[in-house]
Amino acid sequence: MSFKSLTAFLALIAVANAAVTRRVACPDGKNTVTNAACCALFPILDDIQENLFDNAECGEEVHESLRLTFHDAIGFSFAANRAKTFGGGGADGSIITFSDIETNFHANNGIDEIVEEQRPFITKHNITAGDFIQFAGAVGVSNCPGAPQLDFFFGRPAAVAPAPDKTVPEPFDDVDSILSRFADTGFSPAEVVALLSSHTVAAADHVDPSIPGTPFDSTPFVFDTQFFIETQLRGTLFPGTGGNQGEVESPLRGEIRLQSDSELARDSRTACLWQGFVNEQAKMQSAFKAAMAKMAVLGHNVDDMVDCSEVIPSTKPVTGTAHLPAGLTHNDIEQACATTPFPALPADPGPVTTVAPVPGS
Length: 361
Description:
Number of strands: 9
CATH architecture: Orthogonal Bundle
Protein name: Peroxidase
Shape: globular
Pfam family, one: Peroxidase_ext
Strand content: 5-15%
GO molecular function, one term: peroxidase activity
EC number: 1.11.1.-
Distance between the termini: 69 Å
Enzyme class: oxidoreductase
């Protein structure tokens, strides 16, 4: 091929690529997208950032919206759907559409509050519950410094049936049952640990009702690796059942640790995966984004959906650095990974850390 012919050929490729990536102006006169269907999301974005997430804060509604993405999507079973026996529709919004059923499941205790907060937005913007739940989760977590910018695919049909009970793992479940339940939805142990990165911006209201709004790590408004550090601190399992079922005592006053998190952090199948996120912010972000992308489309074929990930706001950089809480040393770490030492971390100065509850819980 002559130089002149090659130049002409490359010019044609450039024109073709430009046509593929041509952007469409939205009716609002300020946004452009690669697919016009995504324009419908900008009014929803503006509305929920102001009126659901309190002007784009990483607060209680973000925590609960992120929790809702999981509780809706995990109600699914590949094995059951193949067998045509039981199995919900995955990330289909059934937890809102059939809230009179699903919010009564034990594992969904307390989820009714965010369900009722989100419902008016769904009605106002004429969007399916499945799309809204995953969109709100992705937008909400973008408000938390350190979080990845999550993907969002648009086009979930309305749910046709409630998810079955006992498909959502609970804090007092053992590691075998948790990994088995996730495996039934197509998630590996590594992806389970990645999804639990969400607990870095989470708090418990109903594990122990006597202490509502208790966070899982000392930085509940920052998407950082402190969760993976602080679950490795030595703690005491509360015996028996009742209000403390599923709870492990943390050495940090004001912090709660789920029994399931504590056991996953120490189980031979997941301990090194868990420790592998300590002080590895980029690794945690990447793994969480990939696992969430998979979870958010459970029960759907992405070929039938529109990629509107560009509508999700850009995220903010992480604040602070990985550290041991004040008053603690490396000796307070309960080493669980048999092959790699726990990373050396600086300790915050001052007296033993006290963690404040999350407001609004």
